[in-house]
Amino acid sequence: MNGEVLLEVRGLEKSFGGHKVLRGIHTQIRRGEVVAIIGPSGCGKSTFLRSLNLLETPTGGSVLFEGKEITAPGVDVDEVRQKIGMVFQQFNLFANLTIRDNITLAPVKLGLMGKEEAGRRAMELLERVGLPEKADAYPAMLSGGQKQRIAIARSLAMNPDVMLFDEPTSALDPEMVGEVLGLMRELAKDGMTMVVVTHEMGFAREVASRVLFIDEGVICEENAPEEFFGNPKNQRLREFLSKVL
Amino acid sequence: MQKIIDEFSLNFIEDDRYRYILEGLGNTVLISFLAALVGIALGFLVAIIRSNHDKTGHMKAANAVCRVYLTVVRGTPTMVQLLIIYYVVFASVNVSKVFAAVAAFGLNSGAYVAEIVRSGIMSVDEGQFEAGRSLGLNYRKTMRYIVMPQAFKNVLPALGNEFIVLLKETSISGYIGLTDLTHGGDIIRGITFSAFMPLILVALIYLLMVTVLSYGVNRLERRLRANER
Ligand SMILES: Nc1ncnc2c1ncn2[C@@H]1O[C@H](COP(=O)(O)OP(=O)(O)OP(=O)(O)O)[C@@H](O)[C@H]1O
Ligand SMILES: [Mg+2]
User: Fold this and answer.
1) What angle separates helix B97-123 from helix B148-169, to the nearest 10 degrees?
2) What is the distance in A from the centroid of ligand 1 to the CA of A47?
3) Which tens digit of pLDDT belongs to each residue from B165-217?
4) Is the pLDDT reported for residue A97 higher than 90?
5) Is the pLDDT of residue A65 over 80?
6) pLDDT per position as a tens digit, B37-95
7) What does the domain layout of chain B look like in residue ranges?
């Protein structure tokens, strides 16, 4: 691994009221990496991921993006988020907008592109995710798998440097999981830096360059997938893997 | 038959008495329309301040002012508010009765619109807001382009209903000596000592206006919903 460090997490902590969810997370994410995050339900995977783009405000430690501390006071969070895409478990497509407008809204309203240019780019992205015929449809008319592919296209429209995925296939019917994972595989192959919270061990094994296991608020184990799955050292990770594999 | 024609002529034709109805109708429409505009402006403002405070913790002072306003308006009868606005607030300044009525009904309606719109904002899934923010849109743009349009659509029936209530509520304007539709009809009754025709006509005109309003709201709602199927 020798790409430049995109995200650096130093001693990240997060409490909700008195409930300490993250207890000091340290890690780095380099350009081109695909990092899979696994762990038992409720261990703080989403909280960790959402701290990376400050949808959750950390209560301790710091996050650096491209060398700049984004948890410091006075940082323009909105500007940082333009470069960090996020894909949600529940898709969260804008229900009031057509698919095309879902994709063009942010680039246009943020003044990055004119409406026409953004429209052309949206069509390119729709071709890429295999749904060009849905440009004028509304989200409610799509299947779950289609929604998630559009959500990925919407993220890509901002040309992010890194993309965060929070269980992108967990809300999908089984027959639609493949189309979304397939698209994510392609993104990985094209060199996109990705941080993926997932329960899809197959995906983690085949696509990830590194896998993290979070439990009780810390990273318990962190390794390349062959070693991670083939020779797990942490006791809790072994128990976890024996249950899910 | 002749009796009905005589009654009609007595109540509306003689001395051009229909003019009381016309003048009253004009005032009712004018007051309702302007008060609705004031109510929408005020209501959205208050709702935006309140939900901004709930979401971000900012705007503490403004939020406190809004809460006092909502408590007072919703905790006192509209008629008392109208009387206070006209006889107390505007006692020493010479404003027209229509202006006082617009102020009173607008202030009143604003409180109800505010709570309707706030409930609409809360009804929009948090994920919509987070998706907007995650793309780099700031709070304001996310609210404007994503949350508010959906909130508005969700509360359109309730808003329509509020304006129907407002229209009917302006019928208490007679208490500050203003000739609205109700008072206009009542003036005729006072002159002719014949209650049936003027009051029934007044009722029919309200009914017609409310029907047209409901129809309009329904159509608008259906048009906005069209894109969800
Ligand atoms: N906004 C919040 N307020 C209070 N507690 C929260 C909040 N968000 C998360 N938590 C708590 O923090 C803990 C970690 O939640 P998180 O969603 O990060 O877990 P997760 O690992 O993503 O779980 P899952 O696999 O179920 O998605 C949980 O106990 C949860 O109840
Ligand atoms: Mg989660």
Assistant:
1) 150
2) 6
3) 999 999 999 999 999 999 999 999 999 999 999 999 999 999 999 999 999 99
4) yes
5) yes
6) 999 999 999 999 999 999 888 999 999 999 999 999 999 999 999 999 999 999 998 89
7) 2-228
SS3 category, A10? strand
pLDDT for A245: 80
Question: 3-state DSSP call for residue B223?
Answer: helix
What is the tens place of the pLDDT at every residue in A119-139?
999 999 999 999 999 999 999
Report ipTM for this prediction: 0.94
**Quick one: tokens of B183?**
């008072």
Give the helix/strand (H/E) hosting B43. Answer: helix B18-56
> How far apart (Å, rounded) are the C-alpha atoms in residues B48 and B40?
12
A14 lines ligand 1 (CB under 6 A): no
Q: Report whether A225 contacts A204 (CB < 8 A).
A: yes
Both tokens of residue A59?
A: 């209560």
> What is the CATH topology of the domain spanning B2-228?
MetI-like fold (1.10.3720)
Burial of B131 (0-12, 13-18, 19+ CB in 10 A): buried
The contacts of residue B112 (CB under 8 Å, 6+ apart) are: B39, B43, B74, B162, B165
C-alpha of residue A40 to centroid of ligand 2, in Å: 10
Return d(Cα A62, Cα A69) in angstroms, integer. 7
State the DSSP code for A197.
E
Residue A37: strand pairing partners: A197, A212
Structure tokens that stand for A172 in this block: 């999908």
- Higher-confidence position of B226 and A38: A38
Task: Determine the atom of ligand 1 nearest the C-alpha atom of A50.
Answer: 18
User: Tokens 């810390």 identify what position?
Assistant: A218
Q: How many CB atoms lie within 10 A of CB A101?
A: 20
Bridge partners, A213 (sequence order):
A38, A221
Sole residue written with tokens 């009525």 = B101
Among the partner residues B127, B133, B137, nearest to A109 by beta-carbon distance:
B137
Model pTM score: 0.90
What is the identity of the amino acid at B149?
P
- Pocket perturbation via mutation, ligand 1, pick of A45, A54, A90 by most ligand atoms within 8 A of CB: A45
Determine the Cα–Cα distance for residues B47 and B85; give it in Å rounded to an integer: 23
**A225, A212 contact by CB (below 8 A):** no
The pair of structure tokens assigned to A64 is: 């650096």
Burial class (CB in 10 A: 0-12, 13-18, 19+), B190: exposed
Whether the Cβ atoms of residue A169 and residue A14 lie closer than 8 Å to each other:
no
